[in-house]
Amino acid sequence: MSNSIDFYFDFYSPYGYLASLRIDEIAARHGRRVNWKPFMLGATFSITGHQPLTQTPMMGEYTLLDLERSARLQSANIRMPQDFPKAALSCCRAFYLLVDDQPEQAVALAKAIYAAIFGEGRDGTDINLIAKLAANLEIDADALLEGLQTQSIKDRLKAETQAAIDRGVFGSPFIFVDDEPFWGNDRLEQVDRWLDSGGW
Amino acid sequence: MSNSIDFYFDFYSPYGYLASLRIDEIAARHGRRVNWKPFMLGATFSITGHQPLTQTPMMGEYTLLDLERSARLQSANIRMPQDFPKAALSCCRAFYLLVDDQPEQAVALAKAIYAAIFGEGRDGTDINLIAKLAANLEIDADALLEGLQTQSIKDRLKAETQAAIDRGVFGSPFIFVDDEPFWGNDRLEQVDRWLDSGGW
User: What integer pLDDT is reported at residue A52 of this predicted model?
Assistant: First the structure.
C-alpha cells in the first residue's frame, strides 16, 4: 500500500473547500489515501504578514470572481458565508476528537462542515450546527460537545497547527505527496500528475 | 479580427517570465494578438501590503521550488538572478520608448530582456545590457539610451503603471481576455480555455 498524501486545510478557506471536493478522488485514482489535516491558518498570518485574500486591498474583488469561476470549472457550488473569515476552532477540534478512533467519521464530518459553510453559507463557528451535522452522521453529538470544552483537545489543535507550520505549511489548501509540497487548489492538476509520474 | 488580450507583467517577476514564454502561442491559437504591458509591480505592494513571495517569510523556499517545478512542466529553464528583486525601470522605459512606432521590436526586446534576467540570471537594471540586447535586434541603441533619460518616458511609465492599478492589476502576470481578469502563470490554462469557449 502506497503512502497517504497529507491534505492541510482551514475550514474557512474557500480554496480549501474547492480542493476538498476533489482530493479523495485524485488520490484514489493512484491508489493513495488522504490524511485530512485541518489547522488554524490564522496562526501563519503573523509570520507571513498576509491576511485572507478577500480582505486584502485590490485582491478581494478578484478573489471572489476567481473562486466562482474556479468552482464552475470543477462543477461545484460555492457560496461565501455572510461573516467571513472566522476562526474555525470548534470545527478543527471536533475533527481531532474523532480522527484517532473514528477516522472515517472525522472526514465525513469535515466534509459536512465544509458543505455547510461554503455550500450553504452557514456559520461554521456555531457548535449547535456542528453537533447537528455530527448527529446526522450517527456520531455521538453530546459527547462531541463535551469533548470540545476539554483542555486536551485545545492542546491537540495547537500542536497540530504548530506541526503544520513546522513542516512549512503557510496556506490552505496545502498538500504533501510524500515530501513534495503543493500549495493551492490550482495545484491539484500538478498533484494528480505527480502521483501519476512520480515527479517530472 | 478579434480583440487583443492584455498581458501585464513586471520584468522582475519570475512567474511573469514563465507566462511570457507561452502567452503569444496561446493567443495565436485562438486568432488573438497580445498587448504586452510591462508595469512596476512594486507600486502595488504599498496598497496590498504584500512583497515578493521569495521575500515573504515561510513562502520563499516553497516559491523557488514551485518556480522550478512549474518551469520544468512547461519545458522552460529558469535561473533566479543573483540580486532579486530589483526595480526594472529601465526595462519598462525601453519597452515604452519603442512600442508606439516599433511594436514588434518592443516585444522582441521584452523577450530578450526576460531571457537575460531569468534565462541567464543577468542584471536587468544594467542599461548597457539593455542597449546590447537592443542592438542585437537592430534597434538604435544610442537613441534608446538617450530616450531612457527623458522626462516624457518617465511620465509614460508612471501613467502606464497607474492605468494598470486603476484597472485592478495587483500581480504579475495579470491577463485580461476582453474584460475577464486572470492572475498568475497558473491561470494560463484557464485563459486558453476561456479563449476557446468564451467563458464557462
Answer: 84
CB A20 within 8 A of CB A108: no
Q: Does B181 touch chain A (CB under 8 A)?
A: yes
Which CATH class name applies to B5-197? alpha beta
User: Which of the four pLDDT bands, split at 50, 70 and 90, describes residue B6?
Assistant: very high
The C-alpha of B136 sits at a distance from chain A's nearest C-alpha, in angstroms, of 35
Measured distance CA(B170)–CA(B42) in Å, rounded: 9
Greatest alpha-carbon span in chain A: 49
Q: Which residues of A touch B59 (CB under 8 A)?
A: 48, 170
- Return the residue matching grid coordinates 539610451: B145
- The answer to whether the CB atoms of A57 and B47 lie below 8 A apart is yes
Q: A58–B186: do the CB atoms touch at under 8 Å?
A: no
* Whole-number CA gyration radius for chain B: 16
In chain B, where the domains are located? 5-197
B77 to chain A, closest Cα gap in Å = 14
For chain B, the first-to-last Cα distance in angstroms comes to 22
Answer yes or no: is pLDDT of B46 > 70.
Answer: yes
* Residue B177 backbone dihedrals phi, psi, to 5 degrees: -100, 110
Write down how long chain A is. 200
Torsion of CA A90, A92, A94, A96, to 10 degrees: -150
ipTM over 0.85: yes
Please report the residues numbered 131 through 170 in chain A whose beta carbons come closer than 8 angstroms to any beta carbon of chain B. 165, 168, 170
pLDDT tens per residue across span B149-158: 999 999 999 9
Mean pLDDT over each residue of chain B, to the nearest integer = 96
Whether the CB-CB separation of A95 and A106 falls below 8 Å is answered with yes
Cα(B84)–Cα(A200) distance, integer angstroms: 26
Phi-psi region of B175 (alpha: psi -120 to 50; beta: other; left: phi over 0): beta
Shortest Cα–Cα distance, B130 to chain A (Å): 32
